[in-house]
Input
Amino acid sequence: MFRSRPKPELKLVEPARAPNAEQVLRRLEWTVLRKLDGVLQGNYLTLFRGFGLDLADLREYRFGDDARTIDWNATARLQEPHVRQFNEDREITAWFLVDLSGSINFGTGTTTKRALAVDFVGLVSRLLTRHGNRVGALLYTDRVDVVLPARAGRRHVLHLIDRMQKTGKVPKPGTATRLGDLLDRALQTIKRRSLVIVVSDFISDPGWAGTLAVLGQRHDVLAVRLYDALELDLPDVGLVVMEDAESGQQLFVDTHDPVFRKRFSALAAEREAALRQSFAVAGADCIELSTSDDLVDTLLRFARLRKRRAQLVTGSVPEQAT
Output
């Protein structure tokens, strides 16, 4: 995983009239998509290299090959270890599993995790659909509220953005996030092998890693973890009231106390370590996306990550000099 941790700013996001779906998509098309086109020179599949792999051939196992590509039936038949080689399918069906629970409304600086989720999903959806691919979505608050079937076209992307903006807009206090419920619903809903992108801050009841691992056995899974710098490092701002976005519980704290800030950072670090372990158990790639990150830079880092993973899967990793 890779992360970006800017120094926390103290200004919270002030409520403002949210742009409509057309305004959001037009901004993404004129800013982020145009930048990506310039860098990728139209080769958008670079971002999704390694997804939608079809079996092309078999070859003998070589030292350094990924053991997951071994074809055990062919190995038993030929009495020599053989690995599978793949070609990439140019058509991709993508599903977004989007967490829109109470904690997703938090943010400092100029944006919130919710707005970041809308931008990311809208951008990747348009990137895919303008080349004829289909996208669908499951939107979760305290349960799966919306299921959008996989379709193509700009109008469908606008519909997806609009539903994301309206779903879970008013948080329901006292309801904890159970991310496992969203993943279970995805297992029931998505029948055909697809690219599954889980967009969440992963502030949830535990137990979801096992379900994510099962999902990863059936589909190509990517986790997009949203976070704000203030969730990792609490600044000295004096006496403040802190509120749990999901339970509604409030706590009056003195952030001037260095012992309290140190304990806060230690607990945040423990949660980070547990989260990394959960992704490792699930075997899922993860993008970490901060509310202050640039989407173009994030997607290009993702492209490099996917290129490396595709080389591992197909056994085409360049040999390192010894």
The chain has a mean pLDDT of 82. Strands lie at 53-60, 82-88, 93-99, 134-140, 144-151, 195-200, 220-227, 239-243, 250-254, 285-290. Residues 258-282 form the longest helix (25 residues). Residues 69 and 79 are 16 Å apart (CA to CA).
